[in-house]
């Protein structure tokens, strides 16, 4: 596994190294063909990672070649890429993959999006024929690890983005949304993200207003909403059940007196106002907890931080699960890979031992008691087990250290084993 993430690379470079679907398809195919490896490529806003494997031998691939490949694909100087890459091999690469899938290596620990991204990257590579037995096993196991971490710990409970926390507040007030009107005031990034979460609730109508009429039209077109003139803000507030405000105005756009005099008397039902602007757009005194529920950015950030703090106590139990699963995967894979060779080696030794013991007992026929024969057979069997213990242990140790392919080939040659 070779890549970079939010810890090693600034967003400016991660953007340049990111893969869209078409570029990722081309890169996975090229990487697999050029180096004769199984390949999966994960590309998200927080990481770009190449997973490569060659079960039958040593990898002719390293961080230097990865840097050259990424630089070539994206037209970025290789010297800008090389210092940012980290590299893991053998069991450490499996551990890294499992931690990524379980969202232990995420910018926000426990976020649920990464496991879907890992799954999609694997499925795309699988469909391209770029994976093989090792990466198939590793990624399928990684997805199971993510599921186990999610169900056995509380690490994924609670939303941690400001926009998702905001929607949680809204869902506490309303239990259905198809008859609700959403009003977007301004066109800030946080407001658009919050609107995206709200759209999943299928609101009945979306209104958009902005000091710039053109901006209001653009945002409305992007969400299937209706642009409202800025001068009609009071009327839009009267119609809205849910308000998202992100204007960036230097002073409140809605003082308490204006709201109480012009808006509140004409409203029916409860209104939720998500004031995500800094400075705030709405006078906090508008909030009464009954007809008007007003939440500002500090309220939302406070809940987000509390959720993140709660998740931290589940990190250690999740790490324990990862370590258990890494050990299980490595042992299972070593059995799958080394098993046939060990089987051939043992069968060959059994045959030679049997031939030698049979010849010996035939020559000593009549001179040995049944107990003597059993002792001789047991001694040869013990000798065989001790003789084979070294190669078996060496295979296991080499597999753990990432040199299993070379050791496997050496054992085949030493014991004259056929494929």
From TrEMBL:
Pfam families referenced in this protein's UniProt entry, alphabetically: GlutR_dimer, GlutR_N, Shikimate_DH
One term of GO molecular function: NADP binding
Glutamyl-tRNA reductase N-terminal domain ranges (all copies): 2-153
GO-annotated biological processes: protoporphyrinogen IX biosynthetic process from glutamate
Residues holding substrate: 44-47, 106, 111-113, 117
Reactions it catalyzes: (S)-4-amino-5-oxopentanoate + tRNA(Glu) + NADP(+) = L-glutamyl-tRNA(Glu) + NADPH + H(+)
Active-site residues, as the UniProt record annotates them: 45 (nucleophile)
Keywords tagged on the record: NADP, Oxidoreductase, Porphyrin biosynthesis
UniProt keyword annotation of Oxidoreductase present: yes
Residue span(s) of domain Quinate/shikimate 5-dehydrogenase/glutamyl-tRNA reductase: 170-303
Site (described: Important for activity): 96
UniProt pathway annotation: Porphyrin-containing compound metabolism; protoporphyrin-IX biosynthesis; 5-aminolevulinate from L-glutamyl-tRNA(Glu): step 1/2
E.C. numbers: 1.2.1.70
Binding site for NADP(+): 186-191
EC category: oxidoreductase
Additional notes on this entry: During catalysis, the active site Cys acts as a nucleophile attacking the alpha-carbonyl group of tRNA-bound glutamate with the formation of a thioester intermediate between enzyme and glutamate, and the concomitant release of tRNA(Glu). The thioester intermediate is finally reduced by direct hydride transfer from NADPH, to form the product GSA.
Task of the protein: Catalyzes the NADPH-dependent reduction of glutamyl-tRNA(Glu) to glutamate 1-semialdehyde (GSA).
HAMAP family reported for this sequence: Glu_tRNA_reductase (MF_00087)
Domain notes: Possesses an unusual extended V-shaped dimeric structure with each monomer consisting of three distinct domains arranged along a curved 'spinal' alpha-helix. The N-terminal catalytic domain specifically recognizes the glutamate moiety of the substrate. The second domain is the NADPH-binding domain, and the third C-terminal domain is responsible for dimerization.
Protein name, UniProt field: Glutamyl-tRNA reductase
Species of the source: Fimbriiglobus ruber
Organismal lineage: Bacteria, Pseudomonadati, Planctomycetota, Planctomycetia, Gemmatales
